[in-house]
Amino acid sequence: MNKLPLLLGFALLAGVVQMALATKIIADPAALMAIPLACIGYVVVIWQCQRIGLTVETRRFLTRLGITGLTVRLLLGGTLLATGVAGFFGADFLTYHEIGSGVANHWLGGPPLPQGDMNRYLNLGSGKSHGSRAGYYYFVAFFYALCGTSEYVMAVVMSILGALSCLLVYAIGRDMFTEQVGRRAGALACLFPSVVLWTCLGYKDGLTIFCLLLAYPCTQLLQRKLDILPGLGLVLSLGASYYVRGYIFYVAVGPIILALTSRNSGEKRVFYNQLFGLLILVVALFASGLGNNLLNQLQEVNLK
User: Fold this and answer.
1) Rounded to two decimals, what is the model's pTM?
2) How far, rounded to the nearest angstrom, does the alpha carbon of residue 60 sit from its chain's CA centroid?
């Protein structure tokens, strides 16, 4: 644990230098807001490491894992944006940036987006538009309104979610199998090249992965005991996944329903808790409109 302050200081220094350099290269003053945001991210990640770890030695491992995961993503994302090669891996984040900037500007008193962009990207009711993917534009707009319209802001946000996802992967592996499996899975999620790439820039993949990983422990807690907080967390994570990447929501709901209804200890109380939790989930989905959208979209599904 003696090396933790030194490691944290180095990580913060590297992040500040990288962001400052990137700001100078592309002349983007709003990117400076990414620096305090990154510092907040380190605090959040370390706090979660202390919460998830069950022993002192485990908390040390998770702290190293979380700091490494966040630092690697910050440096890679900043470098790709500063050098201008980020679009080579996929220019989707540029669209998210453009629409999110327009929405944030409108929230702050500016003109609204052109009607064509509104219909194409933000029309939640249209099955032929981005529909169930429109939520990510508002997610981007929220941080842009709060911190400034810079691609670096979303790169930092996604890096934080990517680092937190590594911790969730560890927890899932530990709870399902063993401590060793959890550590290996967390390390792979932390440093696997494609996972790092898609969680270091403003792609929606980082948020999608985080929502899916968050849904698992909530489901696991509901299996054990009926509680309002895991139920709320499950509904929110599934709802967010629907509005970020709709088809992922449909894939995730099936296994969760099976988990809530098929796995119990044989006690009637546990079974009734699971059944009641499932009922709450179904009611919440239809009350929010997600269930109706699911039924409507299933009618339009075909192999094409």
Assistant:
1) 0.81
2) 24
